[in-house]
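Researcher: Let's try something more involved. This one mixes different molecule types, so please make sure each is placed in the same coordinate frame as the others.
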Amino acid sequence: MKKINVTVWDETQGPIGPYSNGIYQAIADFLVESGQFGKVRTATQPEPEHGLTMEVLADTDVLIYWAHNHHGTVEDEIVERIRKRVNEGMGLLILHSAHGSKIFAKLLGTDALHLRWREASEVERVWKIESNHPITAGLPDYFEIPKSEMYGEQFCIPTPDELLFISWHQGGEVFRSGCTFKRGNGKIFFFAPGHEGFPIYYMPEVQQIIINASKWAAPLGDEPIKLQNVTKSPEALRIGDKTE
Amino acid sequence: MKKINVTVWDETQGPIGPYSNGIYQAIADFLVESGQFGKVRTATQPEPEHGLTMEVLADTDVLIYWAHNHHGTVEDEIVERIRKRVNEGMGLLILHSAHGSKIFAKLLGTDALHLRWREASEVERVWKIESNHPITAGLPDYFEIPKSEMYGEQFCIPTPDELLFISWHQGGEVFRSGCTFKRGNGKIFFFAPGHEGFPIYYMPEVQQIIINASKWAAPLGDEPIKLQNVTKSPEALRIGDKTE
Amino acid sequence: MKKINVTVWDETQGPIGPYSNGIYQAIADFLVESGQFGKVRTATQPEPEHGLTMEVLADTDVLIYWAHNHHGTVEDEIVERIRKRVNEGMGLLILHSAHGSKIFAKLLGTDALHLRWREASEVERVWKIESNHPITAGLPDYFEIPKSEMYGEQFCIPTPDELLFISWHQGGEVFRSGCTFKRGNGKIFFFAPGHEGFPIYYMPEVQQIIINASKWAAPLGDEPIKLQNVTKSPEALRIGDKTE
Amino acid sequence: MKKINVTVWDETQGPIGPYSNGIYQAIADFLVESGQFGKVRTATQPEPEHGLTMEVLADTDVLIYWAHNHHGTVEDEIVERIRKRVNEGMGLLILHSAHGSKIFAKLLGTDALHLRWREASEVERVWKIESNHPITAGLPDYFEIPKSEMYGEQFCIPTPDELLFISWHQGGEVFRSGCTFKRGNGKIFFFAPGHEGFPIYYMPEVQQIIINASKWAAPLGDEPIKLQNVTKSPEALRIGDKTE
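Model: All components are placed in one shared frame. Result:
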């Protein structure tokens, strides 16, 4: 079975909050350590073409995308490039504040930036809604994030194909914190927790979810859906075959 | 109850195929005749701002959109304007070859242009998949379009919220020809039949579907979903109220 | 437009908790007071055939079902009678602890009894997930129930067709507290709040939801889906018609 | 990785139509030949407990169910046993005329017997609706069954979680011929083709679909969803932990 190549994308380089090598490197590290993936790359916004050249994307099975403050300066051409690759089959994980990214809005068709939020340091309790699903496999009924930013409903997304997690926030809100979507051949997983100020990506449950989702989102090898002008109909072909 | 204002949009003006006053006027005519709507406007691509000024859209509850050959020349600013209004709650009907429009792709996030097609003159039989639904109310189990262009699967759309019609094509294909989607507060209905060369919009079943869908898609008056920074939590508010 | 006939069903008769005439009567009262319905009946488990005779069900557009402690003694024949009527098009509202009823399990196919619960007296905050939907029309972003029993995830239901409300519970749980399902022609709405010990059905938001849902669930008049042996195909019929 | 145990169930024993050892044995044969499964058992209705003892079901990861003429004589106790195991996580494949089985109706909650049918010998063309899905992996855009019975819409099922195949029938009908559902932890796949008079289960595409679906439906090892009375809330537990 072909190994899954993952590219972890971040809007900044270098240390941030509790992540001495950046969030992207923290995520890449546990993916590598799991031994379950092929190439694990990182790419960042300051690099040429935001590190997402045609070559990199063509060799990426799953793109993990974290961003917060620089959505506006991501180039539209690169956003379109990602959208196209997702439609072709590349998996995409949208983490935390990347809900406000251009690529997420472009794939969903909604103002996914729109939600209720509070720069908080509150408990978030993540509840599993679906079991016997590849992304939630092995997870407990719930787990607690001691300090988390608050994201709450109403969240401007289309009805997800699958709702896997709902979060309880200490201040009184709820949030659909784990959702899947499919666009063309591409599988998308949104996972809400992950503020840059808290060590959330060091939590084993969160790492398990990201590992599970990366495996789930990997393409199975099908051709992209195409525009096809079929001048000869299947019935014409079928009857033709018989008469020959 | 507030009357529903409908705007029927077309990419061209003037007669086309069997429609002596254009497809847009044919649709506007049966909407008016039904007596079930408020203002029924038409708007066309050649007009300034494609006839879809801020004022027109603000006064439109449901936009009906037909287009075929000029998707590429629709201005991006107008497309974004429509997308925004749909997210705010305006209903949208996407008819026939408008599957390839910028606005449909932008709302779905997929290459909705991509499907199988054949410039044909074949029977299309439209099967009702859901009954007891506002859009299919009063329709028979199926109806036949004597001459129709072929649109077939695989059609590059996200899983619809509701699948209402599936078409059988004489040449051997099937198609999800009636689908609903929701984006933000806006309800969207895609209906496949309607080639400009055939008198399909004169068929009573098709008119019934478009009338039904226009009523279904009309907004109920809710506020758009917003980005809200809630610095004081509901729990803080609640406890505060108690202690006062 | 035909008036909607509603039957409110309860497992017991007489006063319970804050409801001096029973929960069923409290619900019937505000439905009548709204002036938006036709016949508003009540029916209870102690009556012959549980008050749900063939005649009553045939004249019922929407059945509202509240039950808690006597699920086991509801006769299977009556359960099957309700199931059949729902498939034919009768709407059904399943309230609170009726999640554990035979009829809900029979319609869903899951052990819908299974959830997390606590006989509590805690705050429940009900969040609106979908706006511009007939059931949530006119409701605020959230409302608070000062004292409520806790129902929490994981809740053993199929993925709802629509998820309209998610509840936040003071003790730390979340719950999909407003969900729609369709079975055959019948629309089903589950709404979680409503413990017999608290005056929840006197709350205006809850009354609004039940009124909205009763209108939404009413059948539109379509024939039930039938088993049909079509010995002559649509194509045979079509070609036959032409040749005559 | 644990091997998947499959049990293939049939209502009759012995040869039928083109299947010299029965349909159940034909299916078991290609599953064994694929080398991708653990124990591949067969079980039939004439056996004690219909061959589906507690021990057999407990050791079955995926049950494949074919039936046609004897739905009425399947014992309710065994049906309930299967339903319970599906809710616990056992996968279930419902083949062809098993759409009319007690177990399918019980899991769906609808009169899934109800559809349009014709004892025909017509071409059925099976169209793939979703690519990049485990069940459709490796399949062409469509394939043709030269002779097939007709099953057509409207089909009385709830909206499937996923719609994977739609069939075109020569006589003019369409059918949702490949659908997934989830009930509790159990994954269900319905696949329509497979009349006992035609050699459909010998077709490589059909075998691929059944192999794919059996792998997809296998449980991942999660505990069943339970009714849990949580007298101590997560918040009480959390705060308790801190104060100790």
